[in-house]
């Protein structure tokens, strides 16, 4: 991951950001381009199997989402 840009964004992978601030983007692989527009305080994580988009202010509550995935039998995506 590179350092923060002028708008406070952290990016790993291929991404084009427009009017985006304080956002973290992590994208695996070079086959996909992440494009954002009008985001603030967002977490975006893209893997071959899952795309997670979350409000950074609520990341501490992510355990509830993980529990929901387990209850729905979607453990393979964890």
Automatic annotation (TrEMBL):
InterPro entries: ManC/GMP-like_b-helix (IPR054566), Mannose-6P_isomerase_type2 (IPR051161), Nucleotide-diphossugar_trans (IPR029044). Residues 13-69 form the MannoseP isomerase/GMP-like beta-helix domain. It holds the Pfam family ManC_GMP_beta-helix. One of its GO terms (biological process) is GDP-mannose biosynthetic process. GO terms for molecular function: isomerase activity; mannose-1-phosphate guanylyltransferase (GTP) activity. Keywords: Isomerase. SUPFAM superfamilies: Guanosine diphospho-D-mannose pyrophosphorylase/mannose-6-phosphate isomerase linker domain. PANTHER family: MANNOSE-1-PHOSPHATE GUANYLYLTRANSFERASE. This is Mannose-6-phosphate isomerase. It comes from Desulfofundulus australicus DSM 11792.
